[in-house]
Amino acid sequence: MYKELFQFLMKNKKWWLIPPVIVIVIFGILVTFTTASPVSAFIYMLL
After folding, report:
1. Cα three-residue angle 42-47-24, rounded to 5 degrees
2. Which residue would you say has higher pLDDT here, 1 or 32?
């Protein structure tokens, strides 16, 4: 899925979409870790 997205961005010259996509992916990872693990206390302290 990520490979197809990257190929789409390369083909259509949509370089400006890369930073928002990265932010959304990082946010999704943070939400996943903070809701389902004891790591949430450490992530909370970092933010």
Report:
1. 105
2. 32
